[in-house]
């Protein structure tokens, strides 16, 4: 295993643990948001791309909970296998965003950097409410809302 393999594993686990309960393409969308953060130069406490961004994710999360430490996929489930392959391709940039986690705003591709599960708003942090209250999400996918 090398560093990029480890990064891909952590990207997959983050997407799986946060996005699986939201269903649909939400795990893939969250992997793309992490890639957007890396592309935007976010580094986190380690000062290192994907691992730093994933490690720092709870700090910029909309809520105080951190489900990212719970659960492992069942690889008998084809959807889990597909997500694993998609995360590998997202990391390697073999997958375009396709409007899942970025959108054209005033002729400029605007990547989503923040996300919120709107079914869990009772646990929203005050800073999150202050920053995003009244703002329209860039993209909404069911209960998953994405912001710039």
Helices and strands in order:
Elements lengths: L2 H17 L6 H14 L9 H8 L21 H14 L10 E4 L2 E4 L2 E4 L8 H7 L6 E3 L2 E4 L1
Antiparallel strand pairs: 1-2, 3-5, 4-5
Would you mind describing this structure in some detail?
This protein has helices spanning 3-19, 26-39, 49-56, 78-91, 126-132; strands at residues 102-105, 108-111, 114-117, 139-141, 144-147. Helices cover 41% and strands 13% of the residues. The longest helix has 17 residues, at 3-19. It has one domain (3-147). The strands form 2 sheets. A 3-stranded antiparallel sheet has the order 3-5-4, covered by helices on one side. β4 and β5 form a beta hairpin. α2 packs parallel to α4 (78-91). The protein has 5 helices and 5 strands; from the N terminus they run ααααβββαββ. It is of the alpha+beta class and 148 residues long.
Portion in beta strands: 5-15%
Neighbour order of strands in the largest sheet: 3-5-4
Mean pLDDT figure:
88
Q: Which percent range fits the helix content? A: 40-55%
- Topology order in helix (H) and strand (E) letters: HHHHEEEHEE
- What's the number of helices? 5
If you compute it from the alpha carbons, what radius of gyration comes out, rounded to the nearest whole angstrom? 15 Å
Instruction: Tell me the count of domains.
Output: 1
Total number of strands: 5
Q: Uncertain segments of ≥5 residues (pLDDT<50)? A: none
Largest sheet geometry:
3 strands, antiparallel
- What would the principal axes of the Cα set say about the shape? globular
**How would you classify the helix and strand content by structural class?**
alpha+beta
Termini gap: 34 Å
């Amino acid at each position: 295993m090398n560093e990029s393999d480890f990064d891909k594993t952590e990207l997959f686990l983050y997407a799986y643990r946060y996005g699986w309960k939201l269903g649909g393409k939400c795990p893939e969308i969250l992997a793309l948001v992490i890639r957007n953060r890396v592309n935007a130069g976010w580094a986190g406490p380690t000062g290192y791309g994907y691992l730093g961004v994933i490690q720092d994710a709870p700090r910029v999360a909309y809520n105080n909970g951190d489900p990212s430490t719970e659960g492992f996929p069942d690889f008998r489930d084809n959807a889990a296998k597909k997500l694993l392959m998609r995360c590998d391709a997202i990391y390697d940039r073999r997958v375009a965003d396709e409007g899942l986690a970025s959108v054209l705003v005033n002729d400029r591709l605007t990547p989503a950097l923040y996300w919120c599960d709107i079914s869990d708003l009772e646990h929203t942090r005050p800073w999150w409410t202050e920053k995003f209250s009244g703002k329209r999400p860039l993209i909404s996918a069911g209960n998953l809302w994405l912001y710039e």
